[in-house]
Amino acid sequence: MDADAAPHDTLQQEWSPPLPPAPGFAHRMVRTPGARCHVAEIGEGDPVLLLHGFPEHWWQWRLIAPRIAAHGYRVICPDLRGSGWTETDAPGMHRTIQRDDVLAVLDALGVVRVHVMSHDMGAISAMQLAYTHPDRIRSMVQLSVPPGFLEFTPRIIPAFAHMPALLMHRPPRSMGYLFAAPYISHPLSADVLGGYLAPERRPEVLQNVRALYRGMVIPEVVRLVRGDYKRMRLQPPTLFVFGREDRPFSEANVRRISRHHDRCAERFELAFVDDAAHFITDDAPDAIVDLALEWFAREG
């Protein structure tokens, strides 16, 4: 283990701002090239990596990770670069920077192969990891994001309606407006919204929004539209899950854009969750846990 990448146990550290409540998690900082990644862990057993979306952080998994851990898994929830309590040495983003951080975290923790569940922005790193390092992934569950080999249709354009504002983002504007209709079916309580927005008290978080979208998200969207992933083959068995209230990704649209999956993926399945929209882990956490546990058991 590289000393520069060694995990530093900070269970007794005073976190600033304070971490939102989530009983049972252990917290540490893991040194990676150019960053100190905050990682929350719970449980013991086969490792499961949970990659959060935007503008979320490790706490997105507070209702999900403990239940997965209770079935004999070690659940690892890092804060991706630019989010949560992860600290960076310098500003700036590039297309694979979060994937590189994730690989460095796994190496530092001595984890060779994992089950992966990802949501929204976290699906970018999960997808990149699946295509470039398939030997590191046992199985995948991808939430609210279509496969990289999608067949583009104008019907999914509304899924990108939030991007212009994020490309032009200026602090101190909060990201709280995203946790609303049409992205979520069940309004969040003030306490839950406050938990998600707590890291905004760190200047680095809001300052990274434009860099994140310009340096990482948009270049990846260009690759999707250009069809780069249609020329690759997705090897890890992957379950793609969508909320039925996530209108751009209705069942009809998703089946249409992924109709050639047999040419592009080894093992591909779809699932649709009732009464849930884009922020599916808050709308329907129990359904997500059940789907993930079944998939990990079947494909692991």
Characterization of the model:
It contains 11 helices and 10 strands. The two termini are 26 Å apart. Strands 1, 2, 3, 4, 5, 6, 7, 8, 9 and 10 form a 10-stranded mixed β-sheet that branches. The protein has 300 residues and is α/β, with parallel strands linked by helices. Strand 7, helix 3 and strand 8 (137-143) form a beta-alpha-beta unit.
**Uncertain spans, ≥5 residues at pLDDT below 50?**
1-12
Q: Sheet with the most strands?
A: 10 strands, mixed
Summed up, the helix count is 11
The protein's oligomeric status is: single chain
Helix and strand run:
EEEEHEEHEHEHHHHEHHEHH
Rg is: 18 Å
- As a percent range, the share of strand residues is 15-25%
Using the alpha-carbon principal axes, give the shape.
Answer: globular
Distance between the termini: 26 Å
Helix content percent band:
25-40%
Mean pLDDT: 94
The number of distinct β-strands equals 10
| Derived structural class | alpha/beta
